Structure formats: C-alpha cells, structure tokens
Amino acid sequence: MRLRAPFCLVLLVAVGLPCESKDAEKTVDSGSFGIFISGKRVATETFSVQQLGSGVSTATSQLKEEGGTGATQSSELQINSNGSIVKYEWRELNPGKGQLTVLPNNEFLIEKISQSPGEKAAEQPFLMPNTSLVLDNNFFLHRELLAWRYLASSCQQKEAMRCMPAQFGAIIPQERVSVRVAVQPSGQEKVTIRGTERTLVRLNVKSDEDQWALWLDAADHFKLIRVTKVGDTTEVVRD
Fold first, then answer.
1. 121 to each of 85, 109, 139, how far by Cα in Å?
2. Could you read off the pLDDT of 121-150 as tens digits, one per residue?
3. pLDDT by residue (tens digit) across 150-171?
4. What's the whole-model pTM score?
5. Residue 29 to residue 48: CA distance in whole angstroms
6. Greatest pairwise CA separation for the chain in angstroms
C-alpha cells in the first residue's frame, strides 16, 4: 500500500511522540461518531485526542445512547511519549455508577473494577506489556488509535508510505481479557459517505473476538471516517 501522509503527525498521535516542542499543547482530533445498527442511529460517541505539554497524549470519549434511558458512559486514556499507558479510566455515568481503571504494574498492567462508589475494587492483572493497546468495546476512538499506532510502527515513509501486515497485543477492559490483533492493509477504496463518494484507505482488523473494517482519510491526517463489523449490521460513521 502506498500512501502520502504528514508522517510526523501520524507518529505524534500514534504513540505520543513529540514532533513539536514539549511546551506545546495540540488538539490532534475531535468530533463525534454516529453508531448505527441496521441503518438506525443507536448512539453517539463524542471524542477528543490531545497532546499535552508534558508529552502525554490523552484520548477522551463520551458515549450516549439514543432514546430510552439515554445511557451514558465515558473514558479517558493517557499515553506516555514512549507509548506506555499512564492510566485508562471508564465510568458509567447513567444509569449506574460502575467504573474501572487500568494502571501500569511495573512493566505490565493491572485493572481495578468496582460496581459502585465506596466498593472495594476487584483486581485483574494482565501479563501484557504496559505499551499494549486498549480496545474498549464501547469506544470507536480506540480503533482510530489502533490505526495510528499501526501506521507509525508498520509503515515506512520515503516518497510514499509503504505498509506491511502487523500484529499487536491489546486488552479489552470490559471483558477483562487480552487479545492479539492483526491489521492487514487493503489499499484505497471508493466509499459513499452521506451521498458523497470519497477515496479512503481501508484496514482490516481481526482478533479472536471479532473482525472490523476501518476506513481512514489520507488527505486529513488519517482520521477515522467509517467502521463496519464483519458479519454484522453495525456501522460507525464520523459526523
């Protein structure tokens, strides 16, 4: 696959590498994803990715279901400049009060889970390096971060980018499991988004849990535009 790209920005957002001064703060991406099942919008994810002056990158999301109870949950992922996890937090804002936190535990990771405030947290250790990816089932921003990590680690930049298949270790906090994730580049495709045809880069992502197709806009810093789940009617589209 050959792609032209602002490669410094790809590195920046993929693992927090500072392409600018560490004194600078930069919003790398922000917006919202519409989540659809069988063509019906069921939820909206509002997100932001920022590089802080400390060199730490943060990725925050809030997911709100459409109609019904309006169930809402939030997450925040902090990543060091070397790609290691500083902290990951998930909170259920409505209707419950559940929460979990993932923290480094020496070179590995540990997850702490509680169902209500004041409850003693259960612990789940992971024999996974603290540079592992976080792929929460509920937040599609994490798929964008996966794509950026892939571009930074598995593509070479000369006159154009050349990418090879790759595998990554990841944890799924909600399920308290670790997985291997395979990413396969699939070149460029013409995709119709809200009646407009666009040429986007496709990546195929497969784990033991599921398979996804991701479409990124090479003309706009490889921002995630569309996601579909293989064998399912779930579709995610950037608003």
1. 20, 15, 23
2. 899 999 999 999 999 988 999 999 999 999
3. 998 898 876 677 899 999 999 9
4. 0.90
5. 6
6. 56
